[in-house]
Structure formats: C-alpha cells, structure tokens
Request: fold
Amino acid sequence: MRPAGLVARIKDPFATRSRRRRILVAYTFMLPSLIVLAVFMFYPLIRAAILSFTNYSVFGVTRYVGLSNYITLFHNSQFWGDLVNTVYYAGVTTPVSVALALALALLLNRRGLPARGVLRAAIFLPAVVSLAVAAIPFRLMFTPSIGLITYWLGAVGVHSTDWLDSTTLAMPAVIIVGIWKNVGFYMVIYIAGLQTIPKEFYEAARIDGASTWRRFRNITWPLLSNTTMFVTIIALIASFQAFDQIFVMTQGGPAFSTETLVMLIYRQGFQQFQLGYASAIGYILVLIILLFSLFQMRYFNRRAIRY
Amino acid sequence: MARAGVSPPARPSAPRARRRRILGTGWALAVAIAAALIIVFPLLWMFTTSIKPESEIISAHPGLFSATVTGSNYVQAWHAIDFPRLFMNTVIFAGGVTILSLTFDSLTAYALARLDFPGKNVIFVLVLITLMLPFQVNLIPLFLLLTKLHWINTYQGLILPRATNAFGIFFLRQFFLSIPKELEDAARVDGASEFKIYRTVILRMSVPALLTLGLFHFMYNWNDLLWPLIVSTNASMYTLSSGLALFLGQHVIQYGLIMAGSVLAIVPMVIAFLVIQRRFVESIATSGLR
Amino acid sequence: MRLRIIGASLAAATALGLVAAGCSSGGSSGSSSSSSGSSGHVTLTYWNGFTGPDEPAVKALVNKFNQTHKNITIDMTIMPWDVFYEKLLPAYAANNGPDVVAMDTQQLPQYAAKGVFAPLTSYYSSSANDTSSLVSAATDATKVKGTQYAVPANFAPLMLYWNKTLFAKAGLSGPPTNWAQWQADAVKLTKGGSSPQYGIALAENNTIAMWPILLWENGGGVTNPDATKSMLSDPGTISAVDQWSKLVIKNGIAPKNITGAEADSLFTAQKAAMEMNGPWATTGYQTAKVDFGLAPIPAGPKKSVTLADVVGMSVNAKDSSAKQAAAETFFTWWNTASSQTYYAVHTGFVPTNTGVTAADLKANPDVADFQSVSKSAQAYELGTQYTNVETNTWEPAIEKILQGSPVTSTLSAANTQVNSYLGG
Reply:
C-alpha cells in the first residue's frame, strides 16, 4: 500500500495535529453520550453516593450520619450472609454461562450445519422473554409437588424433590435459571466475534494439517480474547446484579438462603424505604464488582491481541 | 476437497474425509438440537399453556397438549390490555432507544477506542461503573429527577434516560479495538477528518456488531417491565411487557392469559432476530473484509 | 449504504414521532393541584393494585361512578402491587402523588405514620355516610392507633375449602369442625407415592396469612392485638407451631415452603384436599371443575376465629377540601348496597355493606357462605413494623422450623427480634 520509507517516517499521523484539536474532536464525539450519562446516570449515581451518608428515607427529615450506614452494614450478619450468597451465585453462573456460550457458538458457527438460524434463535429465545413471566414455568418445574412437570418426568422414571423448599437446593435452581436466561445472549456475542476471524487463517491451518483442537487453541481462542474479556465482564456484572428470577421464584428464601445483595437493597430501599442504607449497600456492591472486573481486565489485557 | 490435478500430501482420501465430515456434522447437529430443545422447553410449556382453556392448565393430570385447542386466551389478552396502543408504545420506546443509543454509543466507543486524549481511561472506567451500579439504587433519584422535569408519562421520559448505554459503549469499544488499523491510518495520512474516518471506514466494517447491538438494545427495552411502569402513571403509556404484568393478580394468576400475552409480545422479537440473523451473514459476505 | 438510509429515515421518523407525542403525551401526571374547572368539576387520580380477575369489575364500577356523577371524574391507574408500593412514597415526596389510593390495611400504618393520608374521623362521624352499615372487622382494620385513615374497599374472610371427592375417597363424611378432627383428617388425606396428595395446602410466604390463624385458635399469635409486644414465645403459639409443624415434617400433610399461588394450584389440581383461602379463589376452582365445599375454619382449642383481609381507600393529606369531599362521595357510593352487590357477585369478595343479604347474592352463592363467617373474622395487623415482623422475622422462622430447626429456640430468637422492632 504505502512505500516502506514513508511508513518509517510517519509514526503516528494523529500526533501531528495540535493537542487541543485532538481533545476537541474526541470530546465532540463523546458529547451526546456524555450529556445523557451525566444527567441520567452520573447525577443519580452521585446523589446515591451522598445519600449513603445520610438517613434518607424519602419522607421526613434527612440527617447526615457519616459512616454509620456502612458501620451498621459491617455488623449486620444479614449483609455478610447475602454477600456469601452473591459470590456463590456469581462464582458459579459466570464461568458456566461463558463456557457454555462459547461451546454453543463454536457449535453453531460450524460450516455446513443445517438450520443454524433456527437453532440460534431457539437458544437465544430465553433472552427475549421477560424473566418475570418465564419464572412461572420454572417455579412449576422446580416444585414437583405441584405436579405439572413431575407427571411427565415420572413417566420417564425421574423422581425429584422440591428444590425451592430446601435451603441447599434453592440456590442451584436459581442459578440454573440465571444461566438459562443469558447463555444465548452471550452466544450471539461470541458468534459476532467468531465472524470477525478471517477465514484464511483456518484455511492455512487446515492445509498445514492442524487438528481441530490446535486450530481452536492457536487461532480461535487468542483471536477471541477481546470478546472473551467482554463477555466475562458482562456476565460477571449481570450475575452480581441478578434479581428478577430470585424475586419471582424465591423472594430470597427459604430462610434467606437465596437472598443476594441486590435483594437486600430492594428490601431496604423499597420495602423499608431506608434509601440511605440501601445506597450504602449499593456502593459496596459496586466496589466488589469493580475489583473483580479490574482483575478480569488486567488478566485479559495481558493476553489481548491488538492490531 | 481435492483440487483437480493436484494431490495434497498426506491427506485421507476425499470420500472418507467427506464421510467423516458428514458424521461430524451429524453429531454436531444432534447436540445442537438437544441443547435447543432443553433450552426451549419452558417456553414450549408457555406456548402450549396459552392455547389451553384456563380450566385445563392446572389440572390433576396435566398433559403437554390438551384435546381442546383454543385461541380464547389470545383474544382476551388482546382486548384486555389494549394491545395495539401498547404495541405502538413499545415500538416507539424500543425503537427510539435503539436508534439513539446506536448513534451515541458508536461515537463514544470510537473516541475511546481510537482517539488519544487525556482522561480517556477515567471516562472509560466511569462508564463501566454506571454499568455496575444496581438500578435499584438509581431508581428513586431518577424518578424524582424525571418528576422535576415533568417528564413522567411522556415518551421523552421513557427514552432519553436510555439514549446512551454503558453496555453499548463497552461492546463497540471492544469491537473497534479489534479492527485492523491500517485502513484508518491510510485515511488519516490522506488528511481525512476523524468523522469521515468514523463514517466510512469504521461503520462500514462494523455492520455485524452494530446489528447485534441494535438487536440487543431493541430486545432489552422491548422486554423491560419495570422502567415503563415507573415512568408512566397512566396505563395508556405502558409498554407490552408492563401491560402483561397486569395479568398477575394479587391472589390469582391467570396463567392462560399471561402466557398468551407473552407469546404475542415475543413473536415480533423472534421475527426480528431471524431477519437480523440473515442480514448478519449477508453483511459478512458483502463487507469485503475477506 | 442502504442501511444508512434506512437508519436515517427511521431516526427522522422517531424524532418526529417523539415531537408529536411529546405534544400529546398520554394522560395526566397525577399532580395534586389539578383541574378544578369553573363548573366545580373535580378530577381525582386513583392508584391501586386491583390486577388480575378483579380488574374488570373494578373498572366497570369506576366507569359507572364517572357516568352518574358528572362533576367528579375518577382517573384510575391500576398497576401490580409491587410497583404500587415502590412508587407511592416517592410520588408523595415529589408532591406528585395520587389523590386516592387503595391499599392493604397491613401496610396502612406505615404510610399513615408518615403523614401522607388525611385522617377520616369526620367522615365516620357523619351519619350521611352510613358507616355503621360497614362490616365491623373491616372498619377496625382501617384504624391506625385509634384514628380512622381509610374506608374499606373490600373485605375477605378466609374459610376452609375442602375437596368433596377426595374426602369421599378417604371415607370421610364431612369437613372437620375441631382441631382433633382436622389434624386426623389431614393425616388420613395425605398419600405419598408417585402421585402424592396432601391433606392441606398450607402456605407461608407471599400468601394471605394462614399460619397466624392456627396460632390465634390456640390462644397464641405473632403479636398482641395492639402490635406492641411479641407473642412468639407464648405457650399457645409454641404449642400450635409444634403440633402443626410436626404434622408437616413427619406426616407430610403439606408441602414445606410454598406460596399462596402454589397452594391454590395444588388445590386446583386436586392434589390437596383442604386449603384455607379467601373468596377470590371460588371462580378458579369452579372453572377447574373441583367439587369443593366451604366450611368455617375448624374451632381451635381456645378460640374459633378466622382471618380477614381488608383493603382500604385513603385520601392524600395534601388534597384540597373540594377534592376530599369528592373522594368521600366516591367512598360512600362504592360502599352502597347496590355497588357492593355488583362487586361481590363479580369478584367473589364479601360485601363491605352488611345490608346486602344472602338473597341479593344468589348469582354467586359462595359469597353468602363467606359472609356468614364475617363476625368471627379479625384482621392480621402488625402496625408500622409490618415488613420487619412478617417478612424479616416470622416467615423465615417458620421456614427454618419446617426445615427441622427446633421449635422453641427458633421461636425464642424470633421473639426477641420482634420485640426489638416493636419496643424500640
């Protein structure tokens, strides 16, 4: 394209423009987003941060209470129990969803597989349904004593117990629904990522006689690292914020065994209207997610392929 | 496939390779179909429930299908929630958010991915943080803000807070980062403005990502139950998902109705997905990337 | 290229649509100083959670009111109860709350304590409003610390639904009338195996309160009637919980942790032979062709009592006197014998007006049955600490006990917790 000499002399054409012009252009691009984010995201976010240092309860007098919300939190065994539940939920849901999504994407991106569109649509379908409605058949499935699904399962010889009754089985049930909901979504993102890998690489590898596993390990996996980082972080954030199916299926029970931090925020914020306290919990959650995400990003950045 | 006249070194003979490939494809297809069936099963229940008369839904010997197939749940659902009006609201809401969000998100993502300026990482982290804060914490300050702006019960109140989306910015930034830089650098050397580069080079090569993101935005907002209920105090401004929530009574759940309503709400999304699906593949083929 | 043109035209269309819509957005936004036109016309915004099968009857009645009262218009918005409780307080805080609300009387004390509702003492003392013909259990439930803050909108006592087919199969001739029979019947009606059957569908979360009835009938309770002290460690309470939880755990007379909706499903599917439930369930069970009978809750060792669920209507404390008067006109109209007859026949709720006779309710005879137990009904009131006591303490305690936690110590811990909420 360009003569080698020319490339050698012009290192970064962008740097030749004035610094001010550069900043102006960049911020002009970001302006619409920044305005919307500032008004509808940052403002409530900062307001919530300030509220976490008060005893704001929507009605009545609001007093500044310093760190007392946070201190109360640390002494609250409910908070720690919910934290453990949250990490348990996220720790299982994230890797399983991402791995399954990758496997399904590879499967459904295979050349020559018939009916790919329909199969992808079928697996993507849970993402399209409202979780509050989808949780209804799931509740029925996990409560065999009501019998709708047990009847057919029994017909094939499978007997089950009531998952949502038990303090040990309720969380796995909720995790299964969480994975079910999002795996198709992550799969589609992976498919988009897979489509950007130039086919020539695979052709070359095939001609060289590389096996399927080696093609995956040396071509697919490294070139997907940007996508993987993205999917993992999104899955992580989503799993820390899981709410809908827990709300509908167990309401945090039985005996708080499926209650996560977000449910605690909901209870404190919307049922007790202790919004200052709820905001404090919210920010602790943000901190935790941020730490996990930064860790993820550093892990992937070291392995990222940039053109 | 063996090329005419050339015999590739150390490869199994063509018919055996083809048989192995067909076997592999068959096995893959079986796994894919099994996965799809398992995943679709609850939704299958929803659909079969929607065509059963209410009396047979919760019964002593439930079958997946029932002898009597009825469309009465659909008719009732259609009338009970003023379907056409809510459908229009949903299209305006989801469509408006998608278009605005795609535009704003891609502009911002381009700046974060390709331009170099002070504060770049700070802004990126800030954007990520908005993604991390649970919406329950934001909800009431946002509600109070909208009330002050008198935007409750309006389309702008529904759409504008969502006109840009941290997820979209993040998604597109990652995608832009993975596009080879040579084309843009060439354009820059030729003196093209950043905006021109954005329009011609980046957007053209990002069609699959934009389509995907557009679908996601559309689908997420199409399904959103809580937000329209919070922003609207008048049922004529509800969206489809929110309207469906009205079938969940305090003591009684009308299973047939709510399943019928849900199916009606899903169908446009499924069609949209299937259409996008094909455009996806077309766009790859015509993008000239390979 | 084509995509860009399509995208651009869609954007333009949306923008135009937004502008057009913004000029004519749907409906009013519930401000408390709304149109009081020159003719003295008053518009009242009314929020409630009457979703599901109740909705058509409520809408029909409100429409009728609007038609027959030309100077008052009720602008009603129905939303799920969850969303209702999420929005109500913020709306009031933003001075944008509704004029009239309907709310469960269990939640009423919390809101009354925040001063968002107007006291209705003068409404009740004025004989023109005929409040003496309202069911006394209902008007008791609408009081907060002795002051009236709501007017009953509906009233629902619980009765024992029993499945005649299943009873006959077990060789039982009729419904139980006391605890000894009740417990024995429940055990007899429980069958395990591949097609299990439960003696009774007992729910403890997301449900109309069923366990408290068992506590009351044994002389116990969750709290004392004033909701100032916990009764969870009272001998009556402990004994009731002990008896019934043992039956659930050892004999499996009921599933362990189900919601009200699931208890209903069990009864509908004829997998449970008994259920304590309100009048709203009759239509569903009839549609499912369940051959059920209605009986008063079997008499307990100490008392024979049932629970009443009451929803009351309240007025925004900041409303003008014109609006308050209009609201009161609506309340009175809602509770007239004719309105209540329509409501009862179409929803199954018991009329709030005692002047409605069984003869008036011929179209829905089950309602008459429920009406007959009104006198022994009491409301389950926990004062301003409802959420803390019920959802955060009592329900988890029962769930733990059904999972095998020892009764006395679990209740004792819960007792301390409830007292800390109430005493403080």
